[in-house]
Amino acid sequence: MATSKITLGIIFLLLGLTDTLSPVSNNCKFPAVYNFGDSNSDTGAISAAIGEVPPPNGVAFFGRSVGRHSDGRLIIDFITENLTLPYLTPYLDSVGANYRHGANFATGGSCIRPTVACFSPFHLGTQVSQFIHFKTRTLSLYNQTKGKSPFCRGVLARPKDFSKALYILDIGQNDLAVGFQNMTEEQLKATIPTIIENFTIALKLLYKEGARFFSIHNTGPTGCLPYLLKSFPATPRDQYGCLKPLNNVAVEFNKQLKYKISELNKELPSSLFTYIDVYTAKYNLIIKAINIGVVDPFDYCCVGAIGRGMGCGKTIFPNGTELYSTSCKNPTNFISWDGIHYTETANMLIANRILDGSISDSPLPTQKACKLTKT
Fold it and tell me: What span is annotated as the signal peptide, if there is one (predicted)?
């Protein structure tokens, strides 16, 4: 293996990035987490609803494929670990489901806006509708049995937890990536207000259903994804090698999203909307790696996922010849897992920045967020 790949762990040390944060005592405790998003936080919805996310996805940590687009854990997994909660069960997975401490409505390929150009029919509006149905059915079952049935006591969400839970939203990457394939930079920027409007409608619906604690992740540097770098070789790059026009759009999207979150904090009483600058955390991984000069942040571990129409772990037969994707031996030496998604190591480092509050507006560790609703 090349020396430049062996030393990524050293880079993380130079960046001041450490292992996963340990749970902190003497803080309030979120009893549940409800998550909405795309493949960056999908813990098995696409596998349950459409088709398996095959190995080597998930193998490095879980020992098998568990519906995640990574070699192991996602950012949402590290967040629930830190909150001492179980990994989230996908809402669409009916086998062995346990919703006592929340549910995951994120689905790979999802967009904020409903559009046929997106990769999944489960756009954000649909995910929120699924949550409303989930909550309604939960309350109905509790009312029927007064909460005394084994099912209610064991695996069903508790009605009192809906207003105390943390609601995480991490979505928007696909809206920009899909749009960039068909629009100019200025045309794509012109769609942002409509995307933000759809996002706002979803947030207000959740608020109407009693949600009060929100963690809103902005969109990452989409223009740095190896998949898109290979797809648009002639597009201008920034000084670090990322697609400049697409990152310009991502920055503008995040600017408008941050302003909207600020407005919602003023508009909606007894709530806390925390804006999380995931863009900066992800971009810093890339630019610091390049500056140090010992790793290619645009290389990826699951080879074969890009350039031949292949997803990580899938096999195709073009012209009768079998082609299959393979995983590198040490995913910890990579930022990108498959050209689109991040490795477990990168997810851990980003999650640490979220959990310690260093990329939050205002700076706020996740474990302290439930203390700060307005009265």
Answer: 1-20
How far, rounded to the nearest angstrom, does the alpha carbon of residue 275 sit from its chain's CA centroid? 14
Pick the catalytic residue: 39, 47, 120, 215?
Answer: 39
Determine whether 39 is an active site residue. yes
Q: How far is CA 168 from CA 82, 149, 203, in A?
A: 14, 30, 10
Q: How many CB atoms lie within 10 A of CB 146?
A: 8
Check if the beta carbon of residue 313 is closer than 8 Å to that of residue 56: yes
For the question of residue 170 being annotated catalytic, the response is no
Residue from 69, 101, 217, 341 carrying the catalytic annotation:
341
CB 332 within 8 Å of CB 9:
yes
* CA-derived radius of gyration, the chain: 20
Q: Give the model confidence (pLDDT) of 128-145 as tens digits.
A: 999 999 999 999 988 888
25 is catalytic: no
State if pTM tops 0.85.
Answer: yes
Structure tokens at 57: 């996805």
Task: Convert the pLDDT of each residue in 9-41 to its tens digit.
Answer: 545 544 544 454 544 445 679 999 999 999 999
Which of 71, 175, 277, 338 is catalytic? The answer is 338
Contact between 205 and 128 under an 8 Å Cβ cutoff? The reply is yes
